[in-house]
Amino acid sequence: QVQVTESGGGLVQAGGSLRLSCAPSDFTNYAMGWFRQAPGKEREFVAAISWGGGSTWYTESVKGRFTISRDNDKKMVYLQMDSLKPEDTAVYYCAIPLGTYYRGSSSPTDFGSWGQGTQVTVSS
User: Fold this and answer.
1) Paired sense of beta strands 10-13 and 118-123, if any
2) How many CB atoms lie within 10 A of CB 30?
3) Region at 46 (left for phi over 0; alpha for psi -120 to 50; beta for the rest)
4) Residue 38: phi, psi to the nearest 5?
5) CA-based nearest residue to 117, from 89, 93, 96, 81
């Protein structure tokens, strides 16, 4: 099973920026997604990117603030988070879509190979 490792979380003031990184143990032809889970809330979709990087998907609340990207040569996926808000505070997870073709599903049940997550805390 593919394992993923997230990094880059931390404490930042509102309006600040962070860049999260995700390193899958196997990078072959996978679309990748980012989710987040705040205390007491369900895990929610944040963004996803196709294998080639030509297609991206975002949840409405982060559009224009977050950017997902990937460097297939370095086998890394990134989530650049700008204009952070306190409501962005959560544990952020990287995951790989199940199945052969990813078509933009935002359901956590359509993803597997979850990492341990990285904490992002935005202070007001």
Assistant:
1) parallel
2) 21
3) alpha
4) -90, 155
5) 93
Q: What count of other Cβ atoms lies within 10 Å of the Cβ of residue 112? A: 14
- Nearest by Cα to 111 from 9, 59, 42, 33: 33
> What are the residues facing 104 on neighbouring strands?
none
Contact 75, 23 (CB under 8 A): yes
Quick: pLDDT tens for 66-101.
Answer: 999 999 999 999 999 999 999 999 999 999 999 878
Hey, what are 122's tokens?
């935005």
The type of residue at 97 is: P
Determine the Cα–Cα distance for residues 124 and 117; give it in Å rounded to an integer. 22
When pLDDT is cut at 50, 70 and 90, the band that residue 26 belongs to is confident
- Cα separation, 118 vs 99, in Å, equals 25
